[in-house]
Amino acid sequence: MRRSFILTSTLLIVVTLALAMYLNPNWYVVLSIVIILTCIGYYDMLQTKHSIMRIYPVFGRLRFLMEELRPKIYQYFIESDIDGRPINRIDRSTIYQRAKKENDTMPFGTQLDVYSEGYEWMCHSMAPKDFNLLDHNPRVMIGNKDCTQPYSCSIYNISAMSYGALSSNAVEAMNAGAKIGGFAHNTGEGGLSPFHLKHGGDVIWQIGTGYFGCRTADGNFSEELFREKAQLPQVKMIELKMSQGAKPGHGGILPASKNTPEIAAIRNIEPHTVVASPPFHKAFGTPRGMMLFIQKLRELSGGKPIGFKLCIGHKSEFIGICKAMMELDIYPDFITIDGAEGGTGAAPQEFSNYVGAPLLDGLDFVHNILNGLNIRRHIKIMASGKIVTGFHIIRAMALGADACYSARAMMMAVGCIQALQCNTNKCPVGVATQDPRLTVGLVVEDKKTRIANFHKNTIESVVELLGASGLERKENITRSHIYRRISFQSMSTYEEIFPSYETGSFLNEIPERYKSDFRHANPDHWGFSNIGSWSN
To answer: Using one digit for the tens of pLDDT, what is the confidence trace for 50-86?
Structure first.
């Protein structure tokens, strides 16, 4: 790394100079090469645009050599995804190009197999709308009847990633980019750190089962600490984390190597220990208790929007939450649906690969239930789970999302190369590590601009897609706009794959596909129950 390079290069210059002076003049050739490489190395350490070159002078340039060997070598060895379900090469390149404000057009037609099962596309219109006349900053107002400080939210925001999982430089760059671009930055369950507040970007404070930043010494929820931080002006919304798509039913994990004294002080925990959050909340134990807790959070925050995040598991449990909402007349301002395909820095393989519903299935279910019970009007839906392009945002909105989050795309915008070292504290570009020898490579002033660029260019792609479909507003997107290839000879719209329902129709008759879930749903009990109040 940097120190090793300085010591090694200095030693080589001294040795080769001595050999040239006292042994053989031919060594001056080697000395010249060493001096040239040393100059290149010092340039690499001083430049601010490429993290891996700052951290690994000279040797870091090999990464860019690998890129030039695309597609055969770089794609195979570097572009594989941590869970075996990669973002395709085109989407990955788009992230980097948009973050760097490079040309993100592509030559020679689509490079995807349009006849393969699973290929998706959206309909265009013979009468597209003029891009210049459309709203280039689509937003959604979040806040229902009980909210006194509603928030105008961008349709694309930074997903939950904790300080601790990410470096302070990465958190700062993301928040500063959010400030520039006018979008929100979710803190993750690790708590509200100074790096989330330093640059003044809008913050969504996530409260997890560990209650980090608002917990007592014994790990319970602290009303006093919550009130103090929730009323900070940068905190625009609060998100109660029930489960995470990458490891639903499992608490968050912070390796001991990342748990520095600074992080421990922010979270009110012991430093240098493995931090394993509980898999459940201590502050409540039933759907009804959850709604009352949400009401308390809203009051303590001064009326700010309160929502919760979950990956769909037992459908009856979510319906039980909806029953509690209706009986108490207490509604969250938003619900975040996290898909099982979502990523994380550390998770057991079985949880990451085999637990929880994927995003599209979760979105379809939640929107249908809320709409069918006629309570969708109180609640906005946010979506998270490998949403990296404008098409992904459009697709999520077709299934009911009002706004979206992205984690891995934002990480890549600040320099992540998916080295798959997130859980080792050895991230080579300073994104997912607490090692100061590595974090020095990530320069906030450069990367904050990339975050803002990526957000702006992705939003513009959403607007362009809307216009191409003949739509003026995101609210006009329907499930019929999206097609999916089922086989070589068969294709279906999302409306055919994920049938929608009329608003309030479940109050008259529950569809057959949901009857069993309603029968087992109970506002006073998690899990399956035979005491459900709606048996039709």
So the answer is: 888 888 888 777 766 665 544 443 443 333 333 334 4
Asked whether residue 138 is domain-assigned, the answer is no
pLDDT confidence of residue 337: 96
Query: Using CA atoms, how far apart are residues 315 and 269, in angstroms rounded to an integer?
Result: 34
Same-domain check for residues 223 and 367: yes
Nearest to 180 by CA among 99, 87, 269, 288: 99
Which residue, 17, 35, 60, sits at the end of a domain? 60
Q: How far is CA 146 from the centre of its chain?
A: 28
Residue 107 lies in a domain: no
55 lies in the same domain as 164: no
Q: Which two tokens stand for residue 309?
A: 């995040």
With H, G, I as helix, E, B as strand and everything else as coil, classify residue 1: coil
Confidence band for 494, pLDDT divided at 50, 70 and 90: very high
**Residue 186 included in any domain:** yes
Q: Quick one: which H or E segment has residue 493?
A: strand 490-493
What is the Cα–Cα distance from 429 to 353, expressed in whole angstroms?
26
- Rounded Cα distance, 161 and 208, in Å: 12
Q: Name residue, tokens 């959050």.
A: 277
Instruction: Compute φ and ψ for 266, nearest 5 degrees.
Output: -65, -35
Asked whether 247 and 215 are in contact (CB, 8 A), the reply is no
Give domain status of residue 298, yes or no.
yes
Peptide bond preceding 71: is omega within 30 degrees of 0, i.e. cis?
Answer: yes
Which residues, 6+ apart, have CB-to-CB distance to 303 below 8 Å?
146, 147, 148, 149
DSSP 8-state class, residue 214: S
Return phi, psi of residue 59, to 5°: -65, -30
Q: How much is the pLDDT for 81?
A: 38
The span from the first CA to the last CA of the chain, in angstroms, equals: 66
In percent, the amount of the chain with pLDDT more than 90 equals 60
Q: Which pair of tokens denotes residue 326?
A: 């209706």
For residue 162, give its domain range.
148-519
- pLDDT winner (highest mean) among 303-312, 335-344, 425-434: 303-312
Mean pLDDT of the chain: 88
Q: What is the pLDDT of residue 528?
A: 66
Rounded mean pLDDT of 191-209?
95
